[in-house]
Amino acid sequence: YVPNHAQPGPAHSRMPVDDQLIARTARKLSTRQSHEIFGLGLSFCRRVMLALGGDIQCRSEHGRFTEFTLSFPPALANEPSLAPAPAPHRPLVGLTALVVDDQALNRAIARALARDLGLRTLEAEHGQQALDMLRSGVVPDAILMDINMPGLDGIATTRLLRELPGAAARVPVLALTANDSPAVLAAARAGGLHAVLIKPIDAAALEHALISALQGSGDPSVSPLAPSASELLNTRRVDDFGRLGLMDELPGALMDMRGHLRALEQAEALDDLDAARDALHALVGLSGECGAKALHGLARRRYAALLDGQASSAPVATELRALLEATEQALAQRYGVQVPA
Fold first, then answer.
1. What domains can you pick out in the chain, each with its CATH number?
2. 328 with 292: CB under 8 angstroms?
3. 281 Cβ contact list (under 8 Å, min separation 6)
4. What is the pTM of this model?
5. 105-115: per-residue pLDDT in tens?
6. CA distances for 179 relative to 125, 167, 320, angstroms
């Protein structure tokens, strides 16, 4: 019997116990029949240890201690090793990323994500500071560039750094933005950016984009990366639907959202701002209720801009429809939700 606070030696463990404790231990390890005790439990334990190639021995001094010593055979060479599995290959470890953003919180988030991927990070608070760093000889392996910044925005900054001499002009630049409209993508392509990452940034998407940019041929082909399920869905909300037995309601809700998008398309074609506001309002509410996280976020931003009188340079319904289709695919793959054809 070895209590938790015993101090085991190299070969065995020893702890003085009293007679009553010895008796209780013997009873636990014995087979009882009527009122007599037969020491079959200890014999059985020893047979098991011998069958495994080991042994068990007991030594006791009445009133002082009882000591059990267990010995085990050495592991064979062909037996599975308990050594830890080798660490996965991390191709970005040791590389340097320059984070350019005028918001301190956004820089902190991008810095944390980059460091989690093994990257070293540098920071610039605006485009001009980033250009000054590059002109001074700093050449990072990649640049994470915010698009909307005062003064030089991300696209203008990238266009200017492409004109710098030497290696600085060839550094891959990834845009970080909450606006993935066709107009922004076209401007990013013309400005020499390699990819556009939509905020909030997903760690897996960032890693994929960085690896693709660093292994690319140097000829940028800008497109928004497909959002992951964690970006598209509020999984806690959808899980609640399952827990409450409401999953059958989701296909109908998705059909309703398609209807709101059709109404929005018609309103945009007729330049009917009131109808567009009504369609966006309905879409914001329904997408939030159904856990369509990315769609809800974008629809809410577009609705707020419309209320403020800010006209979009591209059809709002087009970008929302792309997100709805991606949301439907994520729901089908993760939860088996199928929308009627």
1. 19-71 (no CATH), 96-225 (3.40.50.2300), 231-335 (1.20.120.160)
2. no
3. 303
4. 0.45
5. 888 888 888 88
6. 20, 29, 12
